[in-house]
Task: structure prediction
Amino acid sequence: MANTDVETLNSFLRGEISAVETYRQAIGHVSDEKIRSQLEDCLHDHEHRVDTLRDRIEKLGGKPAGGSGIWGTFSKLIQAGADVLGEKAAIQALEEGEDHGLADYQRDMDKTHGEARRLVRMELLPAQKRTHERMSRLKKTIH
Result:
């Protein structure tokens, strides 16, 4: 079970690292201070999840993923296109990333066991739902 938990948590970790990379890139292209502040809040939430996942993986005796893997490459491509098209497209790309992250947690949560499942169900998934909702609201306010 520990191996399955480590694999699943590492999958979540790669997604969170990808989110951190994408938010950092987007923040660099946003001029509106209110929007930037909201993006920074989401960035910090994802950074916290990265730290939480790394800690849990290490406690399970696993080695945390060092990067975002294929999702990071995909996110960078989407965000690069959004950067060219402006803030609204960047926010839409971030919201789509939040959609993907939420779907990952919901789909794979039950692959975890015991304390790892509690962590996902009680901390990570609710936090993902909050950043997803924040991005959805922000997307609706941008014209």
Q: What stands out?
A: Residues 2-141 form a domain with the Ferritin fold (CATH 1.20.1260.10). Residues 114-141 form the longest helix (28 residues). The CA atoms of residues 56 and 115 lie 9 Å apart.
